[in-house]
Amino acid sequence: MNQLDATFAALADPTRRAILARLIEGEASVMELAEPFAMSQPSISKHLKVLESAGLISRGRDAQRRPCRLEAKPLAEANDWLERYRKIWEGNFQRLDALLGAMQANKTAGDAEQ
Amino acid sequence: MNQLDATFAALADPTRRAILARLIEGEASVMELAEPFAMSQPSISKHLKVLESAGLISRGRDAQRRPCRLEAKPLAEANDWLERYRKIWEGNFQRLDALLGAMQANKTAGDAEQ
DNA sequence: GTATTATATAGCCAATTGGGTATATACCCT
DNA sequence: AGGGTATATACCCAATTGGCTATATAATAC
């Protein structure tokens, strides 16, 4: 799976987004992360595995605990992808025309979605 | 399904991202959208259905054609969600501290993930 | 070593997904 | 009406997902 695929897929689940939101405040153990949810510990571990293999969290070791910390770089990549649409959702079609001009100019090099 | 769920789930597929990228250039019919892909027309129609029910495209009518156009507003919402992590991926922990202070101050009102 | 705590793994299950083919529907043209 | 073109729908299928319970592993505490 592509990095962008994995990032967006990981973000598509509200439990996982809530976990990431919690991790803004700092590292947390699996138990701490599980606490707000009416969900079994193994299910949380599965979600963490998805987040980890998408590179959105990394894990340490503190005695029996495996604390999770946020790794936000893949989110930056997702954000970059979304930026291409900003001109459209902001309704700024002048800038959009400029963007399209630039895209046309680059048609010689490989384009597609990257 | 939540709007954010639907948006991120739709973006998790590279075919769908490529379709959206194509639609930056303007409206396109199903045939036009299908052309770059080694994939059957019904499969493309399925992808379009996913994009449409996520609100990322809307469709018109032009004789037999059902042209698709980009609806970027849900992408703005996704972008807003990602913005919360910008301070982290940019490594700006001073600003992050300020953010955490604000979050703490708002603890009285409902927070959670939204 | 044995118990306790924290986490991971295995296996089950129903639902969803992403592809396919075959067929239906909608619209245009003569 | 009949033929072509564009798109949608109905199924089929294998793989994935997201939940569960039961169990295994890891590290600490006694």
Oligomeric state of shown chains: homodimer
| Biggest interface | A-B, 37 and 38 residues
- Judged by helices, strands and strand pairing, the structural class of chain A is mainly alpha
Strand content of chain A: 5-15%
Widest beta sheet: strand line-up of chain A = 1-2
Calculate Rg of chain A over CA atoms.
19 Å
Proper CATH architecture of the largest domain in chain A:
Orthogonal Bundle
Helices and strands of chain A, in N-to-C order? HHHHEEHHH
Distance between the termini of chain A: 14 Å
Largest sheet features of chain A: 2 strands, antiparallel
CATH classification, class level of the largest domain in chain A: Mainly Alpha
Q: Strand tally of chain A, please? A: 2
Give an overview of the whole structure.
Two copies of one chain form a homodimer. Chain A is mainly alpha-helical. Chain A folds into two domains: 3-74, Winged helix-like DNA-binding domain superfamily/Winged helix DNA-binding domain (Arc Repressor Mutant, subunit A); 84-108, no CATH class. Chain A is 58% helix and 5% strand. The first copy, chain A, is built from seven helices and two strands; from the N terminus they run H-H-H-H-E-E-H-H-H. Chain A has helices at 3-11, 14-24, 30-34, 41-53, 73-83, 86-89, 93-105; strands at 57-59, 68-70. In chain A, strands 1-2 form a two-stranded antiparallel sheet. In chain A, helix 1 packs across helix 5. Chain A is elongated, with a radius of gyration of 19 Å. Mean pLDDT of chain A is 89; it is low at 110-114. Chains A and B meet through helix 1, helix 2, helix 5, helix 6 and helix 7 of A and helix 1, helix 2, helix 5, helix 6 and helix 7 of B. Chain A binds a DNA duplex (30 and 30 nucleotides) through helix 4.
